[in-house]
Every structure is written in structure tokens, then in C-alpha cells.
Amino acid sequence: MDKGANYTVADIGLADKGALLVDWARSRMPVLAALTAQAKLDLPLTGMKVTGCLHVTKETAVLIETIAAAGAEISWSGCNPLSTQDEVAAWLAREGYGVHAWHGQSVEDFYWCIDKTLELNPTLTLDDGADLIVRVHGEKSQYAAGVIGGTEETTTGVHRLRAMAAAGDLTYPVIAVNDAITKWDFDNVYGTGQSTLDGIIRATSVLLAGKTFVVAGYGHCGSGLAMRARGMGANVIITEIDPLPGLRAVMDGFRVMKMDEAAPLGDIFCTATGMKDILVKHHFECMKEGAIISNTGHYDCEINIEQLKEMAVSVRTIRAENDEYTMEDGRRIYLLADGRLVNLAAAEGHPSEVMDMSFANQFLSLCRLAADGKDMDALVYDITLEQDMGLAFTKLETLGFSIDKLSEEQLRYSTDYTAGT
Fold first, then answer.
1. At what angle do helices 352-372 and 15-26 cross, to 10 degrees?
2. Which residue among 122, 146, 283, 341 is least enclosed by CB atoms within 10 Å?
3. At 358, which CATH number?
4. Is residue 299 predicted with pLDDT exceeding 90?
């Protein structure tokens, strides 16, 4: 482990490799590039201290550059013990950014890193999963008074924060970046779909064509994964608890059933629910020989790993992020990435192009909080429709596409309630 005045990383010597990765991401994030150029002129985050808890990837490094260009001080940790790209963390440290993160942390390491970043005395927090915000409201509540506001990147975190707000326990405003249309309809669907399959394939090199692929949860993430798995030739089964996405999955052409029914059929399982105990002992008992289980939800509780361990007579690591659990009857079940985010632990997370919009929303939300946070109530806020529309328009332009614009006559017609047949 390498340590400096404001960093703790696995190996500072990896910085050159990190520079190449960040260079690649930067070249594919044109919306953030435009925001960075403007931020250098306007400096909208001057005087702000931003503590971030978000996957330390090459894309996150580009976001950090943008925040710094806007005038803020930064201290950063990873939001998952297995998602940090050590090369990127090393590059951030060498560039002078505060960063405390490395791949393969223990739970104790994870919270130690969050606590180190809070020593910055933040005025703004940026979170992915709400662990940082919950920490500020609990064990490290001495920092809460100085925080103007925060942002949240993922579905699980937004659910936690809305529960906090409903209970009256949230002490500062938080913007739910995850709930932006330009986030969940793109990052969650296309990003999760592609990167999750990438992680499964890297960890197993398995052929997807012809396999029965079980996706637990048909929200934005699950639906994107199901679409991509079908595109690779898999026969996809969906499990759900909500009749609306369940019905949507049926109409999209997927088989829908209970997990108890799907467990003996699946070759590959991936949970995408945000709920604990989706795969448990009685599911493991009836799975096929060689079944592969994985998770693309935020936490590792969706698969009951303790029960799997108790059932196994032996465990061995077959390859990186792929552990073989042998059952008493000789069947083998393969757990990927210790049940953590398989797309980040076993691969590189979402492609840079789709994170461009999500992280642009993060940056613009921080700017909104820096300007108005002191006058906002301690609630969870959505981003504005104007911001969503503006980012979508900019992204289309950077991709080389254009759309029509309503004429003045069409605009008048759109609000003319007297117009009919």
C-alpha cells in the first residue's frame, strides 16, 4: 500500500497506466469536456469542498477533473470494495487529487477510506449507494453541519435517502441524479446491460448462446441486461415481485416466473433488484451442475453467500472473480465477484460514452447545490426537466445527430384546446 499526505492507493507506480485509461475515457466524454471548458471560465464551485464516494474508474477520474476545474477541492473514496481501478487511483494521487481507494478492500478498509475523505470537512457530498451520506448522518455526524447538499448516483442509494427523508432524518438536500431520464434510461439500461455481460464473460469465458439466463428484477438495469443477454443468443427468464414490470417483461417476449421455478432451469443467474436474499439455500439446492450466479445490484446481499458457504464441502478460486462451490452431492456452483457488482468487480463498469451523461448530471447538480443548497429543504430532489432535455440535446449533437423543432404554428396548436376534429 502506498500512502501520501492526501492519498492511500495500492501502488502509485501504476499511475502511467492510469493516465492512458483516463485519456481514453476523456476522449469519449464530449459533454463533460464541454462542461469542463466552461467551468474553467465560470468557476461555479469556487470555495466548495467535495467529498465523493463513487467507483474509482477512468470515467470517474474525468468527472473529478471537471469538478476540480470548477474550483473545488476534492477527496474521494470508492463506493464498492472491489470496483476501484488501481491504475486510476494511482493517477489521481499523482495528479494531486485526494483519493483513498484500492481494489480488494475489507469492509473495515471501506469505511476507513470514507472517514479519511471526510477529513476534508466537505461542503458538498457525492454518493453512489448513500454509504457516505449515511456515515455523515451517523458515526461521523460532526461533519453534517458544514454540508450544503449532496447528490446520489444509484437506485439503491435513492431508495435509502427517500426513506431517510420520510423519517425526518435527512439533514441536508440531496439531488437524485439516478432519477434523471438521461441517467436511468441510458446508464442503467445500456450501460448495465453491456457491462454486466462483459463482467460475466471476463470471469467465465462462457458461451451465452443457447444458455438459459435468469435475470432477477426487470427494472431499468434488469431490462437492459435481459435485452443484451437475448441479443447474445441466451434464452432469458425474468423473475419479479411487481406485476407491472412483470407484465412488461411478458410483453417484451420474455418468460416470467417465480425464482423457485427458475432455479432448476437457469445456467446463468444475475440479480438486479436492490433487495436481499434473492438467491438463497433452497435455490442453491436445486440448481444445475455448473450454474453460474452473479449480481449487478449495488450490494452483495442479493445472493445469500453465507448459506452457500455453509452448503459447500469445498471452495476454490477457478480464475479471477470466479469461485467454485462444490455441494455435498458433487454439483458445482460458480459465484462471480463475491456477489458484488460483477460489471465493476470483474470488468470495467459502464462504457465512457454512457457515463458522459450521468456524470454531467452529477456535475450540474453540484453546481445547483453550491448556488442554491442553503435555501433548499432537507429533501430528495429530482433534477430539472430543462437539465435533462439540455443534456440529451447536447449528447445527440456530439454523436452527430439532429432532431426537428416545432414551428411557431405547431407550438400554438400544441396549447390550443379548441382545436379538434
1. 90
2. 146
3. 3.40.50.1480
4. no
